[in-house]
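Support request from a user on the community tier.

User writes: "When I paste my structure tokens into the form, the page sometimes reloads and wipes my input. The last time it worked, I copied everything first. Here is what I submitted, just in case something in the input itself triggers the reload:"
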């Protein structure tokens, strides 16, 4: 049995593994690697949410099987979030389902609504599950280039015109990972009109809707008629620093929610009940923690962008998300984003994600995550400045007393 299984063969080599291996080797050698690669929130979950988890976990009745579509209280809390944040009224019984993070929800809905040979439109560059969730389900993916240099609707019309059979679904992700691109409500209005005309289902991922700096990102469900064709995935991971808790939800079209509910009923019993209780407390409780998280990322963004500018690497400041989408400096464009990421790690002790790992149109960029405190980000930009100026004094083994790991955010 030397051949890979069918679905495994459809998955390409994991680009990020090469940078991860170099990162591990550098740390093993005692080097002080500043890891700005993975978008893993470093802030603590707010205390009132943790307290509710502990309280619920101490109830002996809370340790049995839960409910795959989510406990009633959490689904109602999700509906309450949509009502106050977007002005959208949802039925928690028919239009909301709790997921094990948005990633699981997207992958399982892909299994529910696509068959081998179906065509799905996916933005490129994109978060990997947006494409590979459908590829693992047996569908064929047609990429639609996104970014300020592309006419998205022109590319979308071309993709639909040249797809045989016609596409059954499109994935959207705004604010976007990895590019940090945002859109307005007019964009969603045009999407809804286009997809209703062509009978295309819309799967919208708004995991970063609360991490914004220059205006509140909208929901596609705010558009009249959107619920006829659209479902939206959200997550508590970034909003409340609950990434490891694996809790999110999907909202919107009742038929799509029912399909996801049916698949999940065969696959899981839902998240651990105390986690769902704590998630309910997060959505229903005080929301000042979101403002604090947002301002922390804003301060880090400003430090990073200013430091890179001083290093001779101008990068557009992101309007949202916890990422900066940085064009590879001109003198390194020829070697590509993967080789540049390796070089940045080897010569500056800074780990970033190569843009090509997010799709072919990500080539020429790297994604920089705002997951270290401001002191460490300043150190990162100093290291990068030294590297870009031709010095190599950053890639030296660290001394324990110089570690800045406990510095302020």
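"...and here is what came back when it finally went through:"
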């Amino acid at each position: 049995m030397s051949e890979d299984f069918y679905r495994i063969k459809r998955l390409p080599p994991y680009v990020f593994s090469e940078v991860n291996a170099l990162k591990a080797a550098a740390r093993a050698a005692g080097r002080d690697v500043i890891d700005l690669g993975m978008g893993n929130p470093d802030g603590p979950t707010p205390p009132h949410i943790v307290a509710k988890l502990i309280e619920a976990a101490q109830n002996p009745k809370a340790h049995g099987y839960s409910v795959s579509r989510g406990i009633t209280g959490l689904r109602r809390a999700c509906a309450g979030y949509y009502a106050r944040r977007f002005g959208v009224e949802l039925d928690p019984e028919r239009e909301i389902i709790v997921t094990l993070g948005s990633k699981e929800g997207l992958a399982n809905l892909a299994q529910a609504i696509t068959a081998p040979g179906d065509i799905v439109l996916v933005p490129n560059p994109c978060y990997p599950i947006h494409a590979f969730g459908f590829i693992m389900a047996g569908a064929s993916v047609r990429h639609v280039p996104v970014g300020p240099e592309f006419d998205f609707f022109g590319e979308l019309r071309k993709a639909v015109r040249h797809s045989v059979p016609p596409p059954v679904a499109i994935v959207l992700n705004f604010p976007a990972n990895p590019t940090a691109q945002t859109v307005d409500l007019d964009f969603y209005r045009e999407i809804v009109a286009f997809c209703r005309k062509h009978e295309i289902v819309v799967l919208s991922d708004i995991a970063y809707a609360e991490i914004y700096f220059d205006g509140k990102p909208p929901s596609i469900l705010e558009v009249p008629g959107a619920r006829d064709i659209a479902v939206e995935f959200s997550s508590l991971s970034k909003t409340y620093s609950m990434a490891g808790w694996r809790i999110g939800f999907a909202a919107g079209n009742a038929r799509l929610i029912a399909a996801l509910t049916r698949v999940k009923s065969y696959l899981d019993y839902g998240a651990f009940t105390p986690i769902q209780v704590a998630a309910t407390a997060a959505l229903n409780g005080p929301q000042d923690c979101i403002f604090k998280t947002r301002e922390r990322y804003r301060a880090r963004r400003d430090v990073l962008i200013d430091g890179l500018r001083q290093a001779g690497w101008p990068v557009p400041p992101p309007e949202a998300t916890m990422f900066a989408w940085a064009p590879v400096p001109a003198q390194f464009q020829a070697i590509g984003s993967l080789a540049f990421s390796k070089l940045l790690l080897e010569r500056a002790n800074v780990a970033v994600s190569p843009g090509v790992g997010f799709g072919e149109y990500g080539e020429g960029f790297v994604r920089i995550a705002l997951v270290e405190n401001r002191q460490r980000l300043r150190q990162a930009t100093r290291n990068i400045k030294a590297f870009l100026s031709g010095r190599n004094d950053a890639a030296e083994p660290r001394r324990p007393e110089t570690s800045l790991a406990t510095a302020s955010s």
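Agent notes: The reload is a front-end session timeout and is unrelated to the input. The longest strand covers residues 119-124. The chain has two domains: 6-44+289-402, 47-284. Escalated to web team.
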